Give the backbone structure.
Amino acid sequence: MTFLHPQWLALLAIPVILAFWEWVRRGQPIAVPFDHGTQRRGLILRFFVLCANCLPSVLLAIGIIFLAHPITFLPPEVERQLNNVQIVLDTSGSMAENHGSQENGRHRRFDSAMDAILQFTNYRQGDAFGLTIFSRHFIHWLPLTLDTHSFALARPFIQPNNPKLDPPSMGRHGLPDELWGITYIGKALMGATELLAQRPTGDRMIILITDGESSDIKPPLDAPIIAKLQEQGITVFGILMTNEPVEPALVGIVRATGGEVFNAATPEALKMVFDRIDQMKKVVVLEKKPQVADHYRPFFPAAIGALALGVLALFGLRFTPW
């Protein structure tokens, strides 16, 4: 706590002097019939009377403190810089292939990707996340939102469809391969770029998750994609869900934006990749200056208490005998 006008505090000498004088002064003695009696000195009563006489000095001191305008500094507001993250997820039929251990039942590349996405979005609370699914075409399934619960709700509706791998008992889900098959990464990246370009504030990032090559990013088709990403200041991170070499064209696009591309042949490796992305794209905390606030509250109870006791003392707690 400090004071906006500390010069007024010098006046506190006045109530201190008045209170001291109240305790040491003799006053004007008045002769009464029992002055020479054997009654007790009444030291306890004298103490309470002197305390009551000092209450005006206490009120004066509190008034001077109010004039000095007590203030305090509130903790600075902490605000994190918003990251706009568009996850571009391959949902072609090949994403239904097995990924990692199958000891606990069928586990597909799509399952590993969604598990990692859910964990990442829950961990990075405060960032805006969107979801784009793609194969031959792309669909912005989820707009950029702070409500990451939407990803879990979307999961049943975007599963890849692969009749060759999934038994009939699983039923058909996702879009038919005749309509949705083939992987066009370039088209999906351009669509996500246009979406992120609409965000007026915050960093922009694309996390691309795929398991295949794409014919629409091979030179010279990669040049306009790189130019567009750089123009919008978008960083791209690429994740290949296999241990095969990453397509050179994709490596060139990703690294041109300041990102990196990773292989993730197992769920454990995929988790490590997302941890690595989190480290590379740290949360930026913006700390504002401390806020100044009035600090009268601690003095109000003392002022009200002193005023109430002073009023009660007026009903007879004094030295005068009449």
In short: Residues 123 and 278 are 10 Å apart (CA to CA). The domain at 79-286 is CATH 3.40.50.410 (Rossmann fold).
